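Fold sample X.
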Amino acid sequence: MLLFGCLVFTTDTFAQESTDVSPKFQDDLTFLKTHTPIVLLHDGDAAVAVAPAYQGRVMTSTIDQASGQSFGWINRKVIAAGLLSEEERKGKLEEHIYIFGGEERFWLGPEGGQFALFFQPGTEFVFEDWTTPPAIDTEPFVLVEQTANSAKFQRDCEMLNHSGTKFEMGIERTVRLLDESAVAAAIGADNLPQGAKCVAYETDNRLTNRGQREWTPETGLPSIWMLGMYNPSPQTTVVIPFKAGDEAALGPKVNDSYFGKVPAEYLTVKEDVLFFKGDGTRRGKIGISPQRTKGIAGSYDPDGGVLNLVMYNVQDAPHGYVNSMWEHQEKPFDGDVINSYNDGSPTPGAPPLGPFYELETSSPAAALKPGETMQHVQKTLHIQGSSEVLEPIAQRMLGVSLSEIKVVAQ
């Protein structure tokens, strides 16, 4: 989630046309197709809607494309308005970012700090100077390959960081639906349990150094950053297992300093797992360090009977993970690898921005020689079924029972 800090801004840009917390996939698909080209990937009843114009972003997905719910949060007002002229953008959030929504988007870090990609040289770390690079905001990715269940996108671009370092980048992103055997493998089972329905996809995201200069820590390193915005429910709870151990060796169990300390009624931290409300009612963000990560985060919606899992390829990180805090940093490569954000009122009395909640993952800092590539692979699974069906999956993948999650959600 964007590090807006304690900034005050209007919520008009985020306003939804409907307050329905369980929108239907077909309604969202019809709306999206009216305003932007959509690549629809499908396998049986499962479907994923991808927008090339929004950087190959997965806008939403469903278990049942005919009548199922839509998992991704989309910002209808911004999408319907389209790209504004320079004059129309003045004084609006679109001067800094177009928040189209979507349940998995490709971004690049770091956001803040001396090596920030969102602050140009000579600017200050304040909202007025913060700008999302057009290559990951308003400029399309090129669709280069497509099948019934996959789509591949490419984009070459240049970016300048806050320290004045220019990066010549090649971006490649492939979105691929996972079949039942791949889903079973992902959850460590021989097959998908009887009575379970699922939509699952994998994105293969690659960043290549297209220039003649090696990317080094001294002048800044970029990273691949995946962010997902999901529709919440009153009982949605984010669950993140992590490695147990002494804080002197592994550091804090969780970083909840992004927007001020998260209150106990929204965050429960145990020895090796945390529970974080994803109900879209109170703004807060948490992070898990690379020393603590188990490579997975999830959420559970007991009302809809949906278990969500997000996994990524854990890999060596010799140069650490980028730090996106809006300040000159003593440790610019001491960032988190998994994040979760719960939406809520940005100012007292204001409505939530979405509402939505987020699950995010990041690649290591990309210290690449000319021609070298960093790869970050993320899997997203939405599994629907009875509590009896989902229970063994939750215990195997997240290390907790559904009853434990429900107690926290109440």
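Fold sample Y, listed below.
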Amino acid sequence: MSQPDHAKLDPRGRKVKILATTGPASREPEMLRKLFRAGVDAFRVNMSHGEHAIHAQTMKAIRDLEKEFHRPIAIFCDLQGPKLRVGKFKDGKAVIRHSGHFTLDRNPEPGDETRVELPHPELFGLLEKGQRLLINDGKIRLRVIEADDEKILCSAEVGGVISDRKGVNIPDAEVPIPALTDKDRKDLAFAMENGADWIGLSFVQRPEDLAEARKLMGGRGALCAKIEKPMAVRRLDEIIEMADGVMVARGDLGVELEPQEVPPLQKLIVNKTRLMGKPVIVATQMLESMIESPAPTRAEVSDVANAVYDGADAVMLSAETAAGDWPEEAVTIMDKIAAQVEQDEAYIERVRLLDTPPDSTTADALSHACMTIADTVPISAITVFTGSGSTARRVARERPSVPMLVLTPSMKTARRLALLWGAHAVATKDIGSFEEMIAKGKRMTLRHRFGKAGSKLIALAGVPFGTPGSTNLLHVVTLAGDELEKHRG
């Protein structure tokens, strides 16, 4: 799927990627097309909402876009995960008094202002005195006075109106519930059948939570661990190790933690994931006011800019594009913010504040050398030849100052890299020799407008070709500028 000369879309010109959520406001082919042209690199399909038939149409429309623009696009299917909820009330709702007592029990009868059913038997006997229960996204805050196998007596630190089936968060305990529900397993099977490139796993608390999803995926697609529970932070290194990428899911983190705890945690998760050379996405409420307004607040602009300065691989739009009134404008503004930050002279210095010492492998040493050479010599692009994408991830980890053109024989790899910092991936025929590699690298650089006559390139690959993990060759070449004409001739 190499790009013809009359390509309709220039390279993005920015290194951070934009992930946009599809939904009622954006799933029509024409709107998807507008969002892609405005700057979207990957689309998120939220499995919490909508029918499989609608999601299948959306995914097909994205694949049609891919063919039209000759540009790999990642499809990120986000699983709902388990939801803890209270039962029902006699009148559909009740009022919990501030500082009053309220009991959660196993009695299925409708609740009132003093009690309600908690239809999750696994939570009884788990909670201890002093632990918190947050209801309806933290609007109601209860603290456990005493708990046993039948009931949990609480004091209402923050009372208010509670209604049927409202969500419950338990931030102070590891909840003995697997990350995958029956619905998630069906959604995961659907996503795999329809060629999803990434799966977002919700409710991750421990590394073992990733194992079942990984097994069900059967080697297809990449697995992203959504960090939305404080319990996950305790075992963050192990979770990142098990995942292919990580999402900082700030909405749920913000419910279970104090608001001021989220920003430093965001930086910690971004840094730890970057150190391991895996993509990290910052998500939730980035341009929240643009659900209803055509312009963001100054604080939202700063929030997106900070995520870019932190070196995140991707920034995500949720309801802004899924259900908002201004989906195209939200993408356009996010694109402009990212481009402006990356033009800042201090940007590369800022993203390199994180020291990423190379591992003691040839591939890591050469990836590090790419960055050093690009800082020393006027290089227009780093051309990376890779089958699995691991070489591209190594180079991206160093945050080089020049674009990375990734050439791969695997369309799956090219799509997956749509969420990797600085990677412009192209699926192209495999190469068989060193000479062919250099010639193809030059042609592709010209075709995709990453260089012109006299431009210097770095080519990074492994010999023998087609052997995974064999990156052992770095070559600096100069473009004559006539390579495309000669090839045609």
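Sample Y note: The first helix runs from residue 29 to 38.
Also: The two ends are 21 Å apart (CA to CA).
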